[in-house]
Amino acid sequence: MLDIKKIRENPQEVLDKLHKRSPNYELQSILDLDSKQRDIQNIRTELQARSNEIGKLIGQKMREGANPQSEEIITLKQEGNEVKAKLADLEPQERELKANIEALLLELPNLPSDSTPVGKDESQNVEVRRWGDEFIPENKNIIPHGDIGEKWGIINSERAVKVAQSRFIALIGAGAALERALINFMLDQQIEAGYVEIMPPVLVNSETLQGTGQLPKFAEESFKCDKDDLWLTPTAEVPVTNFYRQEILEAEMLPIYHCAFTPCFRREAGSYGRDMRGLIRLHQFHKVELVKIVHPDVSEQEHEKMVEDAERILQALKLPYRVLELCTGDIGFSAAKCYDLEVWMPSANTYREISSCSNCFDFQARRADIRFKEKGKKGTEYVHTLNGSGLAVGRTMAAILENYQLPDGNVRIPEVLQPYLKRDLLIVE
């Protein structure tokens, strides 16, 4: 959530940054409501002061022996009752204005970092670096992972659709084993890098989704349990970040690193017609997520380290990839700065996203009220939150099925995964 004080004091600066995302944002509605709320607040402050003054005055006169039924005391009491009535009338008005302001603030995205490239859409993202060109397969006849997976019987979409609906798949035999090996490998790597593993609930309440920015804007892209205030989590970022919601942490606790494996659920609204086969765009997918809660002074360095932590998985698997710095028109709702890792998919002759690493600054911390306190300093500050995929498991499996595909249709197992699978080859029956 954006700071209302910053909007009030520097509206043009905030608007200019929002317009780097999209020209459609405006702040006047918020400013108008904020002005009304502050006017009422000032009136209430004056009325409360007068109410306190009247109470003290009546008490003083009674101690001096005034008759409770005297005209002076009765007049003061009448004025006091009138003041209280006005206060009672103003309180719900102020609550409603605050609620309306908060509702509008919740719809505004994070402000992009000053270092985020300015651009209107993904075509203006900036490539930072590439890695592993020497590992790009020379075989020009790579079978798409979805096709070869269905042919081998390790991916089954037909039966998954029968028990669920389209955009669900089932992994069978070696497919399930490969996915499980990837999950364990990724978690082991991130734990070794200093992340503490969490296995969180995958059903989360509305306040939790609001805290990380999925609600209210992305309600249509989420799955909700109708009889409960519970949603299927779209990413482990949601429950893990909210572990610390409405807490004041000691500065000595920072930084906090967590990794978590969960199934993730998204409707993928607006994506129909894209990637209908295979493991790329599903309603249910598996992901190992990285979450950091850090001191604001070090969040930019921690962001770069998080990207490196995600890259290290791809490098260990020897999967070619590139790193993109997303422009202002393509960064996520809660992000101030974001890097995407895109893995090489030879059947399509292109790179596809496999990780997105975002620095949200204090945006999520304000929504979820996560603060920290330093010894010897008055007051508290909001933490900075970061999140990233380390990695999307299904997409990693897809990349292996294509990049490690042999001319005879078999697939080599990356060396680092062989201890988890106790084999070096996936063999077509």
If you had to describe this structure to a student in words, what would you say it looks like?
With 429 residues, this protein is of the alpha+beta class. It is 41% helix and 20% strand. It contains 13 helices and 18 strands. The strands form five sheets. An eight-stranded mixed beta sheet has the order 1-11-12-13-16-10-9-4. Strands 5-7-6 form a three-stranded antiparallel beta sheet. Strand 12 and strand 13 form a beta hairpin. The radius of gyration is 28 Å and the shape is elongated. It starts with a helix and ends with a strand. The mean pLDDT is 94.
Strand percentage, roughly? 15-25%
Structural class: alpha+beta
Which bin fits the share of residues in helices?
Answer: 40-55%
Termini separation (Å)?
54 Å
Q: What value does the average pLDDT take?
A: 94
Task: List low-confidence stretches.
Answer: none
Spatial shape: elongated
| Biggest sheet record | 8 strands, mixed
Helical stretch tally: 13
User: Biggest sheet, strands in spatial order?
Assistant: 1-11-12-13-16-10-9-4
| Backbone CA Rg | 28 Å
- Strand tally is 18
